[in-house]
Write a structure and sequence with these properties.
Elements: H1 16-26, H2 29-42, E1 46-47, E2 93-94, H3 98-107, H4 113-124, H5 136-146, H6 153-163, H7 176-185, H8 191-202, H9 204-208, H10 212-219, H11 223-234, E3 247-248, E4 255-260, E5 263-267, E6 275-276, H12 280-289, H13 295-335, H14 337-342, H15 353-360, H16 364-371, E7 375-378, E8 381-384, E9 392-394, E10 400-402, H17 403-415, H18 425-434, H19 441-450, H20 456-459
Parallel strand pairs: 4-7
Antiparallel strand pairs: 1-6, 2-3, 4-5, 7-8, 9-10
Helix pairs in contact: 1-13, 3-4, 4-6, 7-8, 8-11, 12-13, 13-15, 15-16, 18-19
């Protein structure tokens, strides 16, 4: 049986302007500039600057006739920039990809078409670090079923040997031990290198576990010889595939902080809000279309109305983005004022997203979007905005200190330890306590991992 009834429901919806503003806030400066250029190309109403000799005419949306929106099947482009040349900043630096580099080297080898197909398949099977993680027998089956390449294990092994001779050394290894041996075999065969090869071949397990006494006893070498050989091994690249990183993206700061007469001045030199103008051409189009019964004229009014509406939304979203970024950065600047004056890491106060949200009145999610992929240039370096956020703990005097300061002190304790007898986590707790920081052992372990510091037994040296 059907029944009718009333239901009261409350929903929260974002306006188109809010949605567009959120998207623009998330963009780093490089993407934002490209987004603005795209908007200029697609919307003839937007002009970055007034062309020389032209007159600006402001047209209100209220002056336009109320017409149904009409979307024409073409796009109009206008001149995007003014007469003054704009500086060009290189954003991306493209290099040959890792796989393409190996295929290029493969092309210089005197191989048959069949051998080239087998070797190409092997190159495509390497992981991001340059390792071949699959068994040769599995590769043979894959080539047969996926690429219709008939081969055998002997041929695959022979083509793998060819690839292992490519640059950078270590490519095509099946494990870390083989990777290091491949790199040593192309080095000049000095006594240290030959001993390093012997250690990796005969005592790799003991080396991995830092059992130096066992290595000295098994190979019957001196401690000085072992130390020289380990110095050779530690300089090898365990991830040769990452040397072929394809893209380099320089950091372009969103803010520049300068000091003048003891005052901090914050600027955004890379950003300006475009002006909203209607060119004479489109203004005349609107004047001629007023009251005209022609369908073409009505379509012209609808077209300009749509573009003007979209342009106003876009410019307003840009202004809101800029205002949000400035207020957030200014709040961070006020909160961390002592740090921005001297650049000392110990001057950083504990600060979380909630602290800045309370100072600005924005939501925490908005602050998170602002600090993501944004940078500030100071006289002591360029930093991501996330750098200034950290949690806090109390020291023995009851004062709140930043976790960044605790990590710095922890790093100092590890750097000053006796490498023959590295400090355990329990001993690091005692060291930190002696310097006035009360930290639990599990906290030490967490910070140690975040700093990339190995456990005590892995830090042991001869």
């Amino acid at each position: 049986m059907l029944k009718t009834g009333l239901e009261l429901k409350q929903q929260q919806k974002l306006s188109p302007l809010q949605i567009q503003t959120i998207k623009l806030i998330e963009m780093p400066i490089q993407e934002l500039e490209q987004r603005i250029r795209t908007e200029f190309e697609e919307n003839p109403v937007l002009e970055d600057s007034l062309p020389e000799g032209a007159e600006a005419q402001e047209v209100s949306i209220d002056q336009l006739k109320e017409e149904d929106d009409y979307i024409p099947g073409y796009r109009t482009q206008v001149r995007n920039w003014g007469k003054d040349p704009r500086p060009e900043f290189p954003v991306f630096s493209d290099r040959e990809s890792f796989s393409q580099s190996l295929l290029t080297q493969l092309g210089f080898r005197n191989l048959s078409p069949h051998e080239y197909e087998v070797a190409s398949f092997i190159i495509g099977s390497l992981d991001d670090k340059g390792y071949l993680r699959r068994d040769i027998s599995a590769l043979v089956d894959d080539m047969a079923f996926r690429a219709n390449i008939q081969t055998d294990e002997a041929e695959v092994a022979r083509m793998l040997t060819v690839i292992q001779g490519f640059e950078p050394p270590g490519i095509g290894a099946r494990d870390l031990q083989e990777c290091m041996l491949l790199q040593l075999r192309v080095r000049k065969q000095t006594d240290d290198v030959r001993l390093a090869v012997r250690i990796l071949t005969e005592a790799f397990s003991d080396l991995s576990n830092h059992h130096y006494a066992k290595i000295l006893s098994r190979l019957e070498i001196t401690e000085a010889q072992l130390k020289d050989a380990i110095d050779v091994i530690t300089k090898l690249n365990p991830k040769p595939g990452e040397a072929g990183d394809t893209t380099a993206q320089p950091i372009i700061p969103d803010f520049v902080l300068e000091e003048q007469d003891g005052e901090l001045i914050l600027t955004t030199p890379r950003f300006s809000v475009p002006e909203l103008r209607v060119s004479r051409k489109y203004a005349e189009m609107l004047e001629n279309a007023q009251g005209s019964p022609s369908r073409a004229q009505k379509e012209a009014v609808a077209f300009v109305k749509q573009k003007l509406d979209a342009a106003k939304w876009f410019v307003e979203a840009l202004k809101q983005r800029q205002n949000t970024l400035k207020m957030t950065m200014q709040a961070i600047l006020d909160y961390q004022h002592a740090y921005f004056l001297d650049g000392e890491e110990s001057s950083l106060r504990p600060m979380v997203l909630k602290d800045i949200a309370q100072k600005t009145g924005f939501d925490i999610s908005t602050i998170s979007r602002v600090v993501n992929s944004k940078y500030i240039e100071t006289r002591f370096g360029i930093f991501p905005l996330k750098y200034f956020f950290s949690e806090g703990l109390e020291n023995q005097e009851g004062e709140e200190v930043s976790t960044r300061e605790l990590k710095k002190v922890l790093q100092e304790c590890v750097d000053a330890e006796d490498k023959h007898k590295p400090l355990t986590d329990e001993q690091l707790v005692e060291k930190m306590s002696a310097r006035g920081y009360k930290v639990a052992r599990r906290t030490i372990a967490k910070y140690r991992e975040q700093l990339g510091i190995s456990p005590a037994r892995w830090r042991k040296e001869l």
